[in-house]
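Why do we care about 3D structure at all? Because function follows from shape, and shape follows, mostly, from sequence. That is the central idea of this module. The next example makes it concrete: a single protein chain, its amino acid sequence, and then its structure expressed as tokens.
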Amino acid sequence: MDMGELRPATELAAKRASRFANETADYAKARMALLAEEIEVRRHLTRLAEQRRRLPPGPVVEKNYRFKDENGSETGLAEMFGHHDTLVTYFWMFGPQRERPCPMCTNFLGGANGNGADVKQRVAFKIIGRSPVERQRAFAMERGWRDLDFAQTVGDDYARDLGLLDAKGNEYPGLTVYQKDGNEVRVFYSAEMPAEAADPGQDPRGAVDIAPLWNILDMTPAGRGTNWYPKLTY
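And the structure:
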């Protein structure tokens, strides 16, 4: 994005036309100021995406990680690309020790399922878990997920190497994007926001919140709240 071609956000915000005839002058002024901030955030997110795409070649995946696909066949990371050159993976917290999967992971995957068919037009998209793939699929069917593809890790090397499984058996979610580079598979991008980077009063979260739930709640008067989290059942 060429910053020199951009008009000031305040100038663009001044083009706002109210949709509500009875808004107060104070509301109109505050809403215009907020719109200018929204324009600046939109531009910053665009720059962030451009910076991400300009990352130099990432590390080559040297270990031969193995997985089981939904047909029960063993496969490698390279085969999970299919006909695409980019593979988006999400490791969810549904290890064999869990009776039910993580509610937060489940919430994200519900939204991802709604976009799964579209996403897979552009990239390969795989949901990876430590539970048997049959168990993952059974839960997906229970939730009505039809457009997500699941895979099971064979052994725990993948989860441990990516920092998604610690020595105590605790799991952590992970979003990792891979890219094919000739005959090699490279890491393109991995969400690496450390928990210690969370701002005061906030849960750890990435720079772009990819779960629709939180983006919707951020537009409401009460926001996300301080102690509410999604559940598997209500």
